[in-house]
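Entry under discussion copied across for reference:
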Amino acid sequence: MKIKCFFLAFLIFFSGKKALSAVEVTFQPFAYGVKLDTSFCQLSYYQKSDSKNYGLALWTDAFWKTFPCTFKCGSISARASFSSLKNPSFTSSITPFGSVKSGVNCLTSVLNSYSSFPDEFSIFSEFAFVNKKVLPGKFKLNSFYAFESKEMLLSFYKDFKINKKNLFSLSLTYAQLPYGDRDFSSWFNHSDYYFHGGKLHCLDFQNCLKLNNLVTSFKLDTYLSPLGKLNCLFKSENKLTLKHFIFTLSAFYNPYEDVFLADKSFLDPLLQVRGGLQYKNIIKIKNPLFFKAGLNNFVSINLMEKSHTLKTAAGFQVSASLFSAGLSSLTSLKVDSSGPHLRTAFSSEKITLTNIIYLDNTNLSLQASFTFSNASSGYTFSHRYSASCVQDKKIIFSSAFSQDFKGGKLYSSALNFGIKTTFKVKVISINAKAEVKLQFDPSD
């Protein structure tokens, strides 16, 4: 009873002492799972409400090092290079400490846990060859097949060690993906959206060169559209390290209209550029205190429209053995190129303060974020405070409190609680996760 009164007073205080007219309590579906993990196999089962996933993985690395092979089956999903075929462009989210790819991604697959619940049974295999005397570097040949959707993927990977610190790697992934009919509907305005069902053929080619102070990668994605057109998309990511400074520059370019991607969506002609600068240093030598600051910019230009996106992220972080603290900001602007001169308009601003304290058996993290956006109803404001506690690496407690304001008035308040446990007995792990959300709506 005392705990309940305490949280009620806490919420009334943060909501400007306004009465709360309604409380909506939502219990998230209880999730649990069991995993058997040995040196040569892994067996897992997870369930959340009516959704479940299961998987079996076998590998020969422990006793067959020249030909390490992996086999996986169950409700698994294809990742890495296949994800690149689904989303070849950059995401619109950026951070002050944005990184670039440090290698190539060939086709992979993992046994899912709480995060994903695929509906169909799939198989994955990886055959590798590692023998420096016969063939320098590593060679891998991977495959994936989903029985219900009949998606088939093949992937090839090879790397070449120039010396101990320098490496050149490349990969090639082929995907054959069935798709259904796109009927004649007024929802679509372009004739290229109308086609009969068939199979989409696409390729993902990646290469990466890692030198002492330079990392540069190039990616080419090709799609054979349902209308017989061959579309090629290009991406390049580069990083240069000079003592305490890190310079990054990346770009993505799609010159074609209505590119039919592996996730069955369409991509417009697009040009994206990312560029950033980071500084890293150790302030104190005896008791190391690590400091880093970063500035990252992102521009996305839609080559068919006159409205574009410009984002800038800046921040710094200080970390030591007992704590980590940081402050960052993200500014979003809209750019209009319809007139003779470019015009910019404010879209949103987000400021995030993060603090993590490391204790003997407990980690405590606090985060506060403030967001201002230029909405049609005026400026909106929201703030969020979250805390998590890890006890003996077995139990994780988490909580979060957030509020949203619109037009200067409190719109909603929410309080979240969660617990996640992991118990391991020899080679068997038992996992469970539960969450509850309290939604408070203020009175008028």
Observations:
- The chain has two helices and 27 strands.
